[in-house]
Amino acid sequence: MIDFHCHLDLYPDPVEIANDCERRGLHILSVTNTPSAWHGTRSLATGSSRILTALGLHPQLAHEREGELPLFDRLLPQAKYVGEVGLDGDPEYLRHWSQQVAVFEHILEKCAELGDRCMSIHSRRATTEVLDRIARFQGAGVFILHWFSGGLGELDRAIELGCWFSVGPAMLAGKKGQALATRMPRERVVPESDGPFARVKGKPVLPWETELVATQLSSLWSLSVDNVDRILMDNLEKLL
Ligand code: MN
Q: Residue 147 Cα, ligand 1 centroid: separation in angstroms?
């Protein structure tokens, strides 16, 4: 099982969740929202070869935490995985748009300098703006659009740009998310929970509840669950 975008450090009891994930054999991309959270979050992965920790600076925090960019730069050489990063065009965050753009472009530039990064990207209400920048910094590595919520035309552009997608139970519960996932290239999709932020039936999604994703995709893709599981595991291998 795979959860390729999860905020492990933000569950009420992260150590217990991490242990539970290890017991269940889950492969996890544990993303962070600030560079200063990196060390503590990475310590949750101690003793697990399946938990990867990503270095991030969330767009919703860009205006408060841009002072942590020098720390980001210092940590980046040891972080193959980067996230959560991106842009957020929600009215609540548009006020800080210029800071968001400055932070995201700085991060992309540094990733492109080093190359070979694997990035988990937030693009809520800012898909075109995110894709414009992905097009400019193609040398940075693999871009995984997490919880993609753009239009079908934007999806086609993302596919052309070589983007990957992480999809979760909350996204696939709605018709729009289902239509998008149906059109995504199967060889570039991995499951995610986006827990504890993402909720299903009012409760934060737990990392192992990404088990649902294979079932949801099997009906959208008209493949058996076993088949989908195999595809998702092959995809994971390519990202490791
Ligand atoms: Mn997230």
A: 8
Residue where the block lists tokens 């960019």:
69
- Using pLDDT thresholds of 50, 70 and 90, give the confidence band for residue 3: very high
Checking if the pLDDT of 172 tops 90, the result is: yes
Nearest to 126 by CA among 107, 106, 101: 101
Q: How far is the CA of 6 from the centre of ligand 1 (A)?
A: 6
Per-residue pLDDT for 61 more than 90? yes
Distance CA 62, CA 167 (A): 24
- From residue 83, alpha-carbon distances to 18, 119, 186, 203, 217 in Å are 18, 6, 22, 24, 24
* Beta carbons within 8 Å of 123's beta carbon, 6+ residues apart: 86, 87, 129, 130, 131, 145, 148, 149, 150
Give 41 Cα–ligand 1 centroid separation in angstroms: 14
Give the CA radius of gyration of the chain: 17
CA of 192 relative to ligand 1 center, distance in Å:
9
Specify the pLDDT at position 48: 86
Q: What is the rounded average pLDDT for all residues in the chain?
A: 97
User: Cα–Cα distance between 146 and 149 in angstroms, integer?
Assistant: 9
Using CA of residue 156, residue 159, residue 161, residue 163, what is the dihedral sign? positive
On the question of pLDDT at 49 being above 90, the answer is: no
How far from each other are the two terminal CA atoms of the chain, in whole angstroms? 14
Res 17 pLDDT > 90: yes
